[in-house]
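Before we proceed, please read the two lines closing this message. Let me know whether the structure tokens fit the sequence:

…
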Amino acid sequence: MGWRVPNDSEWTDLTDYLGGEAVAGGKLKETGTIHWLSSTAISTNETGFTALPGGFRLSNGNFSYLRYSGNWWTSTVADNGFSARFRTVSHGTSEITKGWNSLPIGFSVRCVRD
């Protein structure tokens, strides 16, 4: 058995299982304000995922959005080979969002076991 980065479909399965994009972020986030800028009842961490707000690293090496958001790459790469799908949870909301970003950006990864 090995470890790997989950693909976009697997993140969607997790989000759907947790009740959809509008609420899944809160169920993944660490509770409290030790790491997050702010916290409310929408952060329950009921999954034990303990999503932390690591922000991201820009291509110039600087970090941005520490304490504001957590961002995780998926293994799903765009046809152009220069961008990949990611997921984001942010302070003050229970949402989880998704998007595409260029690969020189540094996001966190969360591995799953095969």
